[in-house]
Structure formats: structure tokens, C-alpha cells
Specification:
Number of strands: 14
Order of helices and strands: HEHHEHEHEEHEHEEHEHHEEHEEEH
Radius of gyration: 21 Å
Helix content: 25-40%
Number of helices: 12
Strand content: 15-25%
Shape: globular
Bound molecules: pyridoxal-5'-phosphate
Length: about 400
């Protein structure tokens, strides 16, 4: 009776079962995976929404605009000019209710059933589900890591994965969980591939406000690119307000193609009109105040990173270099590797970490932790996993 698109695996993996068991028992757990900013102890009360007036005609009279309100799009363009030094065209923006919805709209725009999109591995696991729900498929290209260069796209391997069914390439920059940042050389190569094979680029930059100090941001060409390109971002990470459900798609590329894409995405959005007027009306205030919100969050990331580099015993652990984002990848000793390692952390030390296989790491000996974890928990959780790996303890 039901579609294949809606058939998602319902098996509970051993790690999730172990976590549920600990929670049922009421065990006090140290959660090193906090990545919901509304649960990580940051004060969002600075968003007072005082700019919102329920009697203003823009709220009293519902005006469905598929692309999103012009005042909101202007405020997003101001945010790019102010915080990222980029001039973007507000008319090239389309608002959506969350980045996940933006992905769905783009997958619907680009893919017929069975078509494919290339996405990074290790990478953000939700993409596979979003693609499946659109009837599309994700094929993973490889990110490689070296101490000298950090994370880089294996460009030759990516090129080999392109087939007649490939419709686009997804980039997450900074990456989740790697923190990989797209550089100009990679963009140039990908642009050539897109030209040659008529592909689109989808650039997810939801973590762009969390670039590590001294590291470059994404190449500015992505905001006005030569090939059809969609940049995705929103208030979920940059302003720490996932519950406001406001994100955007910035479209660029050859004029005729970009216009056709914008027209079609607006049509797809028009069938849902999912973005609330309230979110659109308060967005200018939120964007303006978001910098104040980010300060303690950036400080916590810096503090946790300092702690990590001070306390992690180099011989057995390695904190992988990252250009930005909220996550930290750790190479760990055998005892902590894979699902079994994550379960031991949980049962023997009461610490929650994410096993690397959740993100499709090729090898077993990686775990992922969140740098948003409150610092006292971060220090204690880290000490406990180091203890578990110490053969003399
Ligand atoms: C890389 C990446 N993209 C998109 C999202 C979803 O963002 P939104 O809350 O705007 O749907 C997340 C959420 O964790 C993410 O990590």
C-alpha cells in the first residue's frame, strides 16, 4: 500500500538500544553530543521580538508570497554584507521553513525518481533520508584527511562517480561533522565538472558563522557562481533558533538557467507556502542580534578546543583539524572504536559519544563529539573516555 519513498528502516541499532536502556535506568549520563543550541545552556532571551507588531498590516493581512517577503530578503542580504563581506542579490533569495525543507525543494527541482546527487562522506546522515523522500538517491564521494591539509575532497574519486543519472553535487561547508571548508581550487574543479555534465551545486553553509579563527571562509564565488548553484543557510545555527524555522536558498548561475530554477522553486514553494509570516517579520531583528548570541557559543567552542588540546593524550588519541562548525572528530584507540566502543563509553563511563559509522567514516576508530557541550561536562566526559582507553586504569 505504501510508497518505497516512505519506507525507512525501523530497526533500532545496538547503540540506540543501549542508550535507551541507560536512560530508562535513570543513569546520570554526560552527553558529549549536545548539538541542539536550545538545550546547551545559551541565553536566547536577547531575541525579544520587540520589532514584531501583531497590528502591523504585514501581519494582520496574510499576503502569500512564494519567494518570501522582500523586507526579510533585504535583511538577509544585509547580514551577508555585514558579517561575511559579500554582496548578494535579495531577489535571488527564496525563503523556506528550515534547511531540510530547502533540500527537499531542490531535490524535487533537480531529480526524477532514481536520479542521484553526490554528497560528502563522512557527512550529514539526514541527507540520505531527505533524498529518499524525494525519490532521489545519494551517492557518497570521499573526503580525505591528512594532518598537513586537513579535510579535502578527493576530486578524482568524485569525478569518477558521475553517471548519466547524476544531477548535482552537495557540499557542506564547514562540514558536519568534519569541519571541511570548500576552497577555491576545489570549487574551480567542481565548476568544470558541473559545466561538463550539466550538474548543479548545492552548498550548505549552515555553519558558516562558526569558522575557526584564522581560517578562511568559503570562496566568495559560490554566492555568484558560473554554474547553477544554490547556497543554503538559515537561522537554525547562525542565530541558534532552529524552532523559528526560517532558512533560505540563494540561487546563482548562468542567467537563463538561474531564472528558470528560481521560477520553478518558487512554484514548488507556492504549493506549500510553509514559511510563517511571524518568522519572516522578526527575521531582520534576529539577524541583527545574532552576532551577540553567537559570542558565548564561539567562546565555548574555543574553550572546549583548548581543553581538548591540553588534555588529550597525543599518543593514543588524535583531534582532527577542522575549519569550523560545532563538531570535533576524534581518532580513538581500539577500545573505543565502532559501536562496541561507543556502548562501552555509555555503560562503563556514563558518557554519550557518537560512533563514526553514524556519519559513514570508512574506518571504525573515529568518534564525534559536540563542541557545544557545556565546558564542565566536556572536561569530565573527556577525562572519562581517556580513562577507559588507559590500559592501566
Ligand atoms: C549540515 C546541516 N544542514 C542542515 C541542517 C538542518 O538545518 P535546519 O534546522 O535549518 O533544517 C543541519 C542540522 O543539524 C545540518 O547539520
Amino acid at each position: 500500500m505504501f510508497s518505497r519513498r516512505s519506507q525507512f528502516g525501523s530497526e533500532v541499532n545496538a547503540y540506540t538500544a543501549a542508550l535507551d536502556e541507560q536512560r530508562r535506568r535513570g543513569t546520570h549520563l554526560i552527553d558529549l553530543t549536545h548539538s541542539n543550541p536550545t538545550r546547551a545552556g545559551f541565553d536566547a532571551s536577547l531575541y525579544s521580538f520587540q520589532s514584531f507588531d501583531p497590528n502591523a498590516s504585514a501581519f494582520r493581512v496574510y499576503e502569500p508570497v512564494a519567494q518570501g517577503l522582500a523586507t526579510t530578503r533585504d535583511a538577509i542580504a544585509d547580514y551577508y554584507a555585514r558579517y561575511h563581506g559579500v554582496r548578494i542579490n535579495p531577489d535571488a533569495l527564496l525563503l523556506a521553513s528550515g534547511t531540510s525543507e530547502a533540500y527537499r525543494v531542490l531535490f524535487d527541482l533537480l531529480c526524477d525518481p532514481g536520479d542521484r546527487l553526490l554528497a560528502p562522506s563522512p557527512g550529514y546522515p539526514l541527507l540520505d533520508l531527505l533524498a529518499q523522500a524525494s525519490g532521489a538517491e545519494i551517492e557518497h564521494y570521499r573526503l580525505t584527511y591528512s594532518h598537513q591539509e586537513g579535510w579535502r575532497i578527493d576530486l578524482a574519486e568524485l569525478a569518477e562517480r558521475i553517471t548519466a543519472h547524476t544531477r548535482g553535487i552537495v557540499l557542506i561547508t564547514p562540514g558536519n561533522p568534519t569541519g571541511h571548508m570548500l576552497n577555491a581550487k576545489e570549487l574551480q574543479f567542481l565548476n568544470q565538472l558541473c559545466h561538463k555534465h550539466a550538474l548543479a551545486l548545492i552548498v550548505d553553509e549552515v555553519f558558516v558563522d562558526y569558522v575557526r579563527p584564522g581560517r578562511p571562509g568559503p570562496p566568495h564565488d559560490v554566492y555568484a557562481n558560473d554554474v547553477l548553484t544554490f547556497v543554503l543557510n538559515g537561522l537554525s545555527k547562525g542565530a541558534g533558533l532552529p524552532q523559528l524555522k526560517l532558512s533560505w536558498i540563494l540561487t546563482s548561475g548562468p542567467e537563463v538557467l538561474a531564472q528558470e530554477a528560481a521560477h520553478r522553486t518558487a512554484f514548488l514553494m507556492d504549493s506549500m507556502l510553509s514559511v510563517s509570516s511571524f518568522a519572516q517579520l522578526v527575521a531582520p531583528e534576529v539577524l541583527e542580534r545574532s552576532e551577540v548570541f553567537r559570542q558565548p557559543l564561539l567562546q565555548r567552542i574555543a574553550h572546549n578546543l583548548e581543553q581538548l588540546h591540553r588534555d588529550l593524550p597525543d599518543a593514543r588519541f588524535q583531534a582532527l583539524e577542522s575549519d569550523g562548525g560545532w563538531y570535533q572528530v576524534l581518532r580513538v584507540p581500539e577500545v573505543l572504536a565502532g559501536e562496541d566502543g561507543a556502548i562501552r563509553c555509555l555503560r562503563e563511563q556514563g558518557v554519550i559519544v557518537l560512533p563514526g559509522y553514524f556519519f559513514d567514516f570508512e574506518e571504525d576508530n573515529f568518534i564525534v563529539i559536540s563542541l557545544l557541550t557545556p565546558s564542565a561536562d566536556f572536561a569530565e566526559g573527556l577525562a572519562r573516555i581517556v580513562r577507559l582507553a588507559d590500559p592501566s586504569s
